[in-house]
Design goal:
Subunit structure: The basal body constitutes a major portion of the flagellar organelle and consists of four rings (L,P,S, and M) mounted on a central rod.
Structural class: alpha+beta
Number of strands: 25
Radius of gyration: 33 Å
Shape: flat
Main location: other
Helix content: 10-25%
Largest sheet: 6 strands, antiparallel, barrel
Protein name: Flagellar P-ring protein
Distance between the termini: 55 Å
Keywords: Bacterial flagellum, Cell projection, Cilium, Flagellum, Periplasm, Signal
Number of helices: 7
InterPro entries: Flag_FlgI
Length: 378
């Protein structure tokens, strides 16, 4: 057993003992934001790649593309038949059992030649449904234009469409589907992770403090300077000398380390749905807020007017409108300087306002400089 290996084992034992002590200590809140390194970073080279292809789905029960409205479907069908030895040049091809589709898939990291992946299928023309259809051989291309997989197989859809003479029922989206294990990988991406001596960890939520904590945690665990924070989104890890293993062994050792993540004070607002999400570090200075609600009620009460007896008049409807305006003016309410997120929420809720009004109030408080947080509107 080398000295480096013994050093790592001793540090693992110390880390295990420390973790057990922390579990027994009443400090759960302090470590509530802790997460494994593997859950907060993406490792360089371990990534998916998007694939896309154009193909034909056949076998539809009259729910395919209308060839007069989808010339690309007609051209693709004629080209496919010519490759199979069927000459349809100059013929008026009329069929509703074929649909042009776009096929997409994700090539997993280190996918090997001959293994299978799932593919998604979506109609490109005016097909009504892909139910019962079969995708013909479709090459799937990468961003470099090379073929990485070949897709083919029966399409499974989650929706359906039923139509009669005077009614139509549609459930889900019948023009999209999925083929489980529907593509075979034909080309591998040339990347050898085990031969690397240095790679980068990309933070999914870039933050200077979190990047530094990751580097400190890794260096403390290995015992030698191994990780270096390069920027808020990147930590570079270098294979130390004397390490018993390659870069894969090193990543396996450090990906389980727990790191307390940090995040900026931010408020995320979705004005369409009225959703407001606040981070735990949001703070607000003491401010006074007033809100005025104006309610307008309009009611129509038409009156039937009858003509006098033995007259030549006709029955008529006389309109009658009741209009009421109610203004609720609330006095200034003080939102005291907050120490915690709960106190901030309690102070705003004390005003008795709706979420959409709260959005306008938060933006107004931010404009005054009393809100120490970033507001992001979706």
């Amino acid at each position: 057993m080398t000295g480096m290996t013994m050093h790592i084992l001793l540090r693992r034992l110390a880390a295990t003992t420390l973790s057990a002590a922390l579990l027994l200590a009443p400090m759960a809140d302090a470590f509530a934001a802790a997460a494994r390194i593997k859950d907060i970073v993406d490792m360089e080279g371990i990534r998916e790649n998007q694939l896309v292809g154009y193909g034909l789905v056949v076998g539809l029960n009259g729910t395919g593309d209308r060839l007069n409205n989808s010339p690309f479907t007609k051209q693709s069908l004629q080209s496919m038949l010519e490759r199979l030895g069927v000459n349809t040049a100059g013929e008026n091809v009329r069929t509703a059992n074929v649909a042009a589709v776009m096929v997409t898939a994700n090539l997993p990291p280190f996918g090997t030649q001959g293994s299978r992946i799932d593919v998604s299928v979506a109609a490109l023309g005016d097909a009504d449904s892909l139910q019962g259809g079969t995708l013909l051989v479709t090459p799937l291309l990468g961003a470099d234009g090379e073929v990485y997989a070949i897709a083919q197989g029966p399409v499974n859809i989650n929706g359906f469409k039923a139509q009669g003479d005077s009614a139509t029922v549609i459930s889900g989206v019948p023009t999209t589907g999925r083929i489980s294990s529907g593509a075979v990988i034909e080309r591998e991406i040339d990347f050898h992770l085990g031969s690397q001596t240095s790679l980068r960890l990309a933070l999914r939520n870039p933050d200077l403090t979190t990047a530094r904590r990751i580097a400190l945690s890794i260096n403390d665990f290995i015992g030698v300077p191994t990780a270096t924070p390069e920027d808020p989104a990147t930590v570079r890890v270098t294979l130390p000398r004397g390490f018993n293993g390659n870069i894969v062994d090193l990543l396996t050792d450090i990906e389980q380390l727990m790191v307390e993540t940090d995040q900026p004070a931010k408020i995320v607002i979705d004005e369409n749905s009225g959703i407001i999400v606040m981070g735990k570090d949001v703070r607000v200075s003491s401010v006074a807020v007033a809100q005025s609600n104006l309610t307008v009620t309009i009611a129509e009460n038409p009156t039937i007017v009858q003509p006098a007896p033995f007259s030549n008049g006709v029955t008529a409807v006389e309109p009658s409108t009741d209009l009421e305006v109610f203004a609720s003016d609330k006095a200034l309410a003080v939102v005291n300087e907050s120490v915690t997120l709960q106190e901030l929420v309690d102070g705003l809720n004390a005003l008795g306002i709706a979420p959409r009004d709260l959005i306008a109030i938060l933006q107004a408080i931010k404009a005054t400089g009393a809100l120490q947080a970033e507001i992001e509107v979706l």
